[in-house]
């Protein structure tokens, strides 16, 4: 008996060591790339070219950040991204809740048809080319409006919000109706205030999606002045035409390298997300849970 | 006589139905007004593009539009089947997704099981938070890191290899590496987040089961095999079927950022081909036909997966 118990404990310890080692490994693998690019972008040029930087910065050098921030294009693009994210999220939340509330109402005759009408789009779509041609035919190419509208609604989020609305107690709505409130007032004054948790989670998902979005932005927008920062980052990491601007910077400033500029640009574009992430993380997870449970 | 009676009664029905519709419109006036902008959006951005698929059967001319363009039947589909790249595109699309499934599917489960075994709540919370992080980082940043880390001259991977006396590897010039890179990035970015669903399923297992097992002398490994894994199975099956259904949904924006003509041999998939043919060469009809072909195969996969799921677990996806 005693012997058996001891053996079990020993096995459990090995098991626990393995688990902790694996999880710590995962965390290092996740965080190391971020630490590395931060260290490189802050290190002085000599240490970087001699391949001495692996973990923490060697020396201290903000030239890469100064160079990136001195490109006019980046600042304009950054402003554009903030605009697309803030206004786009407001538009998305508005349309999503406007769709979700009627769909949550059992007494709405159109409810079933409207649900089918939306759910079909989860399974069928036109694909890249027909979608592009629609935007073109609407004369929305090269406009800010196209970016705000093209991804304004996610059917999946409508379903999540609708389920949340359905779960709210019906008594409040009914008593408000007896008091003579119309559906719009019920929606604005009762439903929306009660739905802050789900709206926060969905709003965050919309906002992150818009902040990170680049593919359609690059296709729909030609005008440099309207591009979001992710699209500019694509050029910095891929396009050789950007190198000429970079070369100019390199000639002017001996303290920067192409790689440090790239890393600085990566940090500048992902910094807002990394900065807010620890604080908002619980909402992200809550959003998934709501989605998983309800659907 | 009878006829007249019938016609008046049907008229009455119609009148009362009209009155019913009118009453509904008045009663739920605000619901209709609220839904209207949504309806317009879906017609413009979801249903109009679906209608636009007809250009796959036309020699589409931008000036003439859909109504003025000439119909060509299945010409572009035939052209695609005879395309010298047809086989390569199908192979690449399937392989990239099969590999993603083989590696991307079990890793979140393993991760969730590990998190579940951790008893220190602080450590658990911090490590979980870290593991979700890459999901929220943009594809551009992830691909930018991959491109620079794997660069032959300044990338850290080659710097480390050179310390071991290994010559620089041109990761993005040699087609052999592409699938590995793509799958690795997918796992790195998505595994932590994908684990959430399993973590919540694990949280739902009754602690009494473990208590009973402990009394019977089961160690943690045995508890894992006989309680945790069987309880997790339904979730695993559903997620597997969901993944199978999405087999053709390559993350093509990632590929567009990573690939270049020297590695099209392994990197070019249906989506990227549609993108190049359609949006770069402006070969709209042909690209739409390829996209539609992919959509049809994809739908069959989703439908098949749902059919299977209904058979296997009696829980269908819809």
Structure description:
The complex is a heterodimer of chains A (295) and B (318). Chain A has two domains: 1-61, no CATH class; 62-295, MetI-like (MetI-like fold, Orthogonal Bundle), CATH 1.10.3720. In chain A, helix 3 (63-70) crosses helix 15 and helix 13 (229-238) crosses helix 15 (258-294). Chain A is globular. Mean pLDDT of chain A is 87; it is low at 1-6. Chain A contains 15 helices and no strands. Chain A has 295 residues and is an all-alpha fold. Chain B contains 16 helices and two strands. The radius of gyration of chain B is 27 Å and the shape is flat. Chain B has helices at 2-27, 29-52, 65-68, 75-81, 86-104, 106-117, 121-132, 139-149, 156-163, 178-203, 207-215, 220-245, 252-258, 264-267, 270-280, 284-313; strands spanning 58-59, 70-71. Chain B folds into two domains: 2-59, no CATH class; 76-313, MetI-like fold. Helix content of chain B is 74%, strand content 1%. The two termini of chain B are 51 Å apart. In chain B, strands 1-2 form a two-stranded antiparallel ribbon. Chain B has 318 residues and is an all-alpha fold. In chain B, 35% of the residues are buried. Chains A and B meet through helix 1, helix 4, helix 5, helix 6 and helix 10 of A and helix 2, helix 6, helix 7, helix 8 and helix 9 of B. Chain A: Belongs to the binding-protein-dependent transport system permease family. Chain A: The chain crosses the membrane at residues 12-35, 82-101, 113-135, 147-165, 186-208, 255-280. Chain A: Keywords: Cell membrane, Membrane, Transmembrane, Transmembrane helix, Transport.
């Amino acid at each position: 008996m005693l012997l058996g118990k001891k053996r079990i404990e020993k096995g459990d310890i090995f098991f626990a060591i393995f688990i902790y080692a694996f999880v710590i490994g995962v965390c290092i693998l996740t965080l190391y790339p971020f630490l590395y690019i931060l260290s490189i972008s802050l290190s002085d040029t000599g240490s970087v070219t001699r391949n001495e930087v692996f973990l923490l910065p060697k020396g201290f050098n903000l030239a890469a950040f100064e160079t990136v921030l001195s490109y006019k294009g980046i600042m304009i693009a950054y402003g554009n991204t903030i605009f697309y994210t803030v206004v786009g999220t407001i538009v998305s939340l508005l349309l999503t809740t406007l769709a979700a509330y009627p769909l949550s109402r059992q007494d709405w005759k159109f409810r079933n048809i409207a649900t089918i009408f939306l759910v079909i789009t989860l399974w069928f779509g036109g694909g890249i080319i027909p979608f592009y041609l629609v935007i073109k035919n609407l004369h929305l190419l090269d406009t800010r409006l196209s970016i705000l509208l093209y991804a304004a609604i996610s059917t999946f989020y409508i379903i999540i919000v609708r389920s949340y609305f359905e779960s709210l107690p019906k008594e409040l709505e009914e008593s408000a109706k007896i008091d003579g409130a119309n559906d719009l007032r019920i929606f604005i004054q009762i439903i929306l205030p009660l739905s802050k948790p789900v709206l926060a989670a969905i709003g965050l998902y919309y906002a992150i999606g818009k902040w990170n979005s680049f593919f359609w932005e690059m296709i729909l927008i030609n005008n440099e002045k309207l591009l979001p920062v992710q699209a500019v980052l694509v050029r910095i990491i891929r396009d050789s035409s950007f190198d000429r601007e970079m070369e100019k910077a390199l000639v002017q400033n001996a303290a920067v390298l192409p790689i440090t500029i790239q890393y600085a640009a990566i940090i500048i574009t992902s910094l807002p997300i990394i900065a807010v992430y620890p604080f908002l993380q619980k909402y992200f997870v809550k959003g998934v849970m709501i989605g998983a449970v309800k659907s | 006589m009878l006829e007249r009676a019938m016609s008046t009664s049907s008229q009455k029905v119609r009148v009362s139905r009209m009155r019913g519709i009118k009453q509904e419109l008045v009663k739920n006036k605000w619901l209709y007004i609220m839904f209207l902008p949504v309806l317009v959006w879906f017609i413009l951005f979801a249903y109009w593009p679906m209608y636009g698929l007809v250009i796959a059967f036309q020699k589409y001319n931008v000036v003439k539009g859909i109504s003025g363009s000439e119909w060509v039947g299945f010409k572009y589909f035939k052209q695609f089947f005879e395309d010298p790249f047809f086989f390569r595109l199908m192979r690449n699309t399937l392989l990239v997704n099969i590999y993603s499934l083989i590696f991307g599917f079990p890793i979140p489960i393993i991760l969730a099981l590990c998190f579940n075994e951790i008893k220190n709540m602080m450590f658990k919370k911090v490590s979980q938070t870290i593991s979700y992080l890459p999901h929220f980082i943009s594809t551009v940043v992830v691909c930018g890191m991959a491109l620079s880390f794997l660069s032959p001259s300044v990338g850290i991977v080659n710097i480390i290899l050179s310390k071991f006396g290994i010559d620089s590897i041109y990761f993005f010039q040699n087609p052999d590496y592409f699938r590995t890179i793509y799958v690795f990035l997918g796992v790195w970015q998505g595994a932590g987040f994908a684990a959430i669903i399993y973590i919540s399923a694990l949280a739902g297992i009754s602690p009494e089961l473990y208590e009973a097992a402990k009394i019977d002398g089961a160690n943690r490994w045995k508890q894992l095999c006989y309680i945790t894994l069987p309880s997790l199975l339904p979730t695993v099956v559903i997620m597997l079927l969901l993944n199978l259904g999405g087999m053709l949904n390559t993350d093509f924006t990632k590929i567009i950022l990573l690939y270049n003509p020297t590695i099209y041999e392994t990197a070019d998939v249906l989506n990227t081909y549609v993108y190049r043919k359609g949006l770069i060469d402006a070969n709209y009809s042909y690209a739409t036909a390829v996209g539609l072909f992919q959509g049809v195969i994809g739908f069959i996969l989703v439908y098949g997966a749902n059919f299977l799921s209904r058979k296997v677990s009696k829980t269908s996806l819809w």
